[in-house]
Amino acid sequence: MAENTSVLTAQETFGDDPVAGVGLMADDARVAARTLARAPRAWKDRALNLMADRIEARADTVLEANSRDLERGRESGISTALLDRLKLDRTRITGLADALRELAALPDPVGSVVRGQTLANGLRMRQVRVPMGVVGVIYEARPNVTVDIAGIAVKSGNAVLLRGGSAAFDSNRALVGILRDALADAKLPVDCVQTVDDYGRDGANALMGARGKVDVLIPRGGRGLIQSVVTNATVPVIETGEGNVHVFIDESAPAQMAAKLTVNSKTHRTSTCNSAETLLLHSGARETSREVLAALDKAGVTLHVDDRAAALLPPGSDHLQATDEDWATEYLDMDMAVKVVDGIDEAIEHIRTYSTGHTEAIVTNDLANAERFTAEIDSAAVMVNASTRFTDGGQLGLGAEIGISTQKMHARGPMGLEELTTTKWVVQGDGHVRP
Predict the structure, then answer these.
(1) Which has the closest alpha carbon to 233: 251, 212, 202, 208?
(2) Mean pLDDT of the chain
(3) Does the pLDDT at position 1 exceed 90?
(4) CA 429 to chain centre
């Protein structure tokens, strides 16, 4: 088994200038992507399974690296939410390996025909899926994303340049080394997976400016990171998911379902972009609302409530007075804003005002209200009687995901294999000329 394929720093290989260095890495990625684009599915699937095996076999190496990142994060005072995103344990490592194996089992999108026909003049045309080429990804404190993105890229025939952030530097370095070793063992180009982390923030800036070398750039993280990339990049960007996510409890909502679903949406994993941040309660569902608020309070959620919601709280609950700022806040923690509304009209209007276009949910037994909610809410995902935590590539059968797109161009919602491809037209004739 190959070991330590990626042991040199980027500076040792490509020089100290981040713009030149990232440019050279992108050139290598382009060459690797051309080879990977022609690779049969069996080769790519073998690589993914080897990646999974190597990650599990070298879990101790990854955990040691991750412990250094966690210690450094605690010393620097990063938030509880970021520490949760940063943390790896054996269960999460097993999950990473399983996600890679699930990707291997999925159909290969490359070469699939989107549409085709024979025209009246005899020309045969078809539109087929092809890889993007070189994909840059900028993210923060999420070593699991390193593996997810690398796996999706390999399966969809793309090369990736990763900027994983200083908080996860050691974890990402260990993981990228393991992934590159697996690619070498699978006889695929190791430069399909590279990291620019050695160049620090300058590496991220170089990725953003690598127009003509990087085909598409995907930011994944908090609002500050996403907006920085969207604002400053000259490379085409797919904007992903800041999540000010809402749950609306309709007047007809069953109390037990409403409580269970809301608690899951809020507390299942608070640091993710699909966790609920605002709860809207129909004024006609007082008893159901009491049960939902009691369940959230029991789960340890700090509630930021308006005056009408405050009157529904259980005695001694942990709560704060809501302000206008709360309606626009993505807490990513055990906090939730709560507002009482007078019906579905007010709920929809509130969501339109404050939503980031990620995920919204309605709990209802009224079919007309469910249909109206899904028709009028303009977000990437709309849930009816289901937890917002299902806005996830793995949960929706896509395998791992590269992010949740909140834009409307090319891809929207969880981005899996097909979303990392584009298309080209193939036209076949028999000496046809245009009259």
Answers:
(1) 208
(2) 93
(3) no
(4) 42
d(CA 339, CA 282): 9
**Assigned token pair, 384:** 């009816």
DSSP helix/strand/coil, 37 = helix
Phi and psi angles of residue 371, each rounded to the nearest 5 degrees, phi first: -65, -40
Which range, of 30-44, 57-71, 256-270, 402-416, averages the lowest pLDDT? 402-416
For residue 82, the SS3 value is helix
State the CB neighbour count (10 A cutoff) for residue 256: 12
Residue 371: Cβ-neighbour burial (10 angstroms; 0-12, 13-18, 19+): exposed
Over residues 212-263, the pLDDT tens digits come to 999 999 998 777 888 899 999 999 998 887 789 999 999 999 999 999 999 9
Amino acid at 57: A
Q: Across-strand partners of 321?
A: 305
- pLDDT for the residue numbered 8: 63
Task: Give the integer Cα–Cα distance in Å for 226 and 291.
Answer: 37
How many helices (H) and strands (E) the chain has is answered by 16, 16
Residue 313 · residue 322 · CB < 8 Å: no
Alpha-carbon gap, residue 381 to 391, rounded angstroms: 7
**Phi and psi of 346, rounded to 5°?**
-70, -35
CB 170 within 8 A of CB 65: yes
- Checking if the pLDDT of 141 tops 60, the result is yes
Q: Which residues partner with 134 through β-bridges?
A: 159
Determine the Cα–Cα distance for residues 325 and 257; give it in Å rounded to an integer: 29
Residues sharing a CB contact under 8 Å with residue 32, sequence separation 6 or more, in sequence order: 159, 189, 190, 191, 192
**This prediction's pTM:** 0.83
Q: What is the dihedral of CA 368, 369, 372, 376, to 10 degrees?
A: 180
Residue type (1 letter), 173 = R
Q: How far apart are CA 334 and CA 81, in angstroms?
A: 9
CA distance 290 to 288: 5
Question: What is the torsional sign of CA 398, 403, 409, 412?
Answer: positive
Q: Using CA atoms, how far apart are residues 222 and 314, in angstroms rounded to an integer?
A: 33
- The percent of residues above 70 in pLDDT, for the chain, comes to 98
Q: What is the pLDDT of residues 96-126, one digit of tens each?
A: 999 999 999 999 999 999 999 999 999 999 9
Q: Is 156 exposed, middle or buried (0-12, 13-18, 19+ CB in 10 A)?
A: buried
- Among 211, 200, 218, 206, CA closest to 9: 200
List all residues 6 or more positions away from 268 whose beta carbon is below 8 Å from its beta carbon.
Answer: 275, 387, 389
Task: Give the position of tokens 């009209």.
Answer: 345
